[in-house]
Every structure is written in C-alpha cells, then in structure tokens.
Amino acid sequence: MKIGFIGAGNMGGALATAVAKAIGGDSVYLAAPCAEKVAALASEIGASVSDNATVTRDCDAIFLGVKPQMMAQVLATLPLGERAEKPLLISMAAGLSTTAIRAMAGVDAPIIRIMPNTPVAVGQGMILYTASADVTAEQTAAFLEMLREAGRLCEIDEARIDAASAVSGCGPAFVYLFIEALADGGVECGLPRAQALEFAAQTALGAAEMVLKTGRHPGDLKDAVCSPGGTTIAGVHALEDGAFRATAMGAVTAAYERTLELKK
C-alpha cells in the first residue's frame, strides 16, 4: 500500500514519521512546497520525495496536510478524476467536514477526517477520526494500522469532533501551561529550573497514565493524594481559590466557540 502526503508541515511531518514507523518508509511519498524541508524529512524517515500529481495518481491513501483556507485551491489542482478507483483521502483540516472535502475534491472519493494533536510527534497523540459512509472496513483497518505508532485513535461522530478537538487538540497547550506553572512554583521554592521542569513533566505524565490505566475517576485519584490537614489539600485549596477548574473548563469552551466562529 502506498501512502502519500500532500503537505508535510509540523503535523503532517509528525504523522508521516509515525506512518513510516508503522509500515516502513519505502511506502511513504511526500509532496510539499518547501523542497529542502521535505527532502530532509524524507531522508530522515526513509520516504520518497514526490509531487502532488504523482501522489494523487499512484497512492492508495493520501493525507491532506493543507490549511483549511487553501484546501479548495489545492484539491482543484489534483488529478483525482483521472483515477477509476479513487484513493482514500485523509484530511486534517480544522473545521472542514467530510461533505465539504468531497465537494471541494469534485469526486466521490472515500474520506476520513482526522483531528490529531501535537504529541503524535512522540507517539503519544490523541487522534480523533470520522469516516464517510463509503469508507470500507478494509480501508479503516489499513488507516488504523498506518497510524498505530502515532498514539491513541478514537472514532467519533462528526457532529462532536469540534467539541472533542477543543479538549484533545487544544489541550496540549493548556497542559504545557500547567507544567510550566508547576515548574515556576518549584523554582520559587528553590529548585533549579531544569529539575523543576523534569519533575513537573514527569508528574503530569504519571498522573495521566494513572487515569488511563486504572480507569478511576480523577477526583478519586486526587482524594487519594490529599491527606487530612496535609500539604496537598492546602495546594488544592489554593488552586480552587484561583478558580482552577472553572478556568480550565472556560478554556475548552472558548476554544470550541472559536472553532464554530471560524467555520462560518
């Protein structure tokens, strides 16, 4: 199976790297405007440098790493109509539905819409996906296999993908802020910056793993750390004085509402 990438920026490049790890770089073909950057990525992951037309004609699945405002223009230039059997199109453009992608492509190609996040770069991404009705079971299985090194994948109804992306797509930025704030607190208490960052990042990683692997509610896990009259509950009180949970909820809601604005 040949996998093509049209556009290989930060997210597209990270996904191409994950695909190369999963199925081998010799099956991956990269097409992007910046020749130097795409050549460096191809060399790194063992992929081939190609162009939009060749990827469109030869590849079985094509990742569209194209900005939403450029999607219609790029799709209009692709020779999709020349193929009797249309390739699987995988779009990562925010706000563009599978219906919109099909209309822009001008052909009845099967489409999977994905919303990944930046941790796919280290194999710990959260990739939301929704598929058009004509995507076959075999194509879905191949899609899941090619992204198995990118992180977790979750199928979601398209009507909820924007809300979900406000959590997983925007969430890494919120978590990075929290890690930085924890580290700043450690520095204020006398820790060297490098140590404070290491301790904060590992703590966030470990806490996330506890939620995912134990299946326990985060409130229950929080209670297990808070001894009566102890240090942790004093810290939790300080966070609640600053409306920590309400602020985090507001961040997700603000991101979601901005997504809806951008779709208009």
Write the element-wise H/E pattern from the N-terminal end onward.
EHEHEHEHEHEEHEHHHHHH
Distance between the termini: 37 Å
Low-confidence stretches: none
> How many individual helices?
12
- What is the global morphology? elongated
**Spatial extent as radius of gyration:** 21 Å
Please state the structural category: alpha/beta
How is this fold's topology laid out?
Layout: E1 3-6, H1 10-23, E2 28-31, H2 35-45, E3 48-49, H3 52-58, E4 61-64, H4 68-77, E5 88-91, H5 98-105, E6 111-115, E7 125-131, H6 137-146, E8 151-155, H7 161-168, H8 171-188, H9 193-214, H10 218-225, H11 231-241, H12 244-263
Parallel strand pairs: 1-2, 1-4, 2-3, 4-5, 5-6, 7-8
Antiparallel strand pairs: 6-7
Helix pairs in contact: 7-12, 8-9
What does this structure look like?
It is a single chain. The chain has twelve helices and eight strands. The chain is an alpha/beta fold and 264 residues long. An eight-stranded mixed sheet has the order 3-2-1-4-5-6-7-8, with helices on both faces. α7 (161-168) packs across α12 (244-263) and α8 crosses α9. The two termini are 37 Å apart. The mean pLDDT is 95.
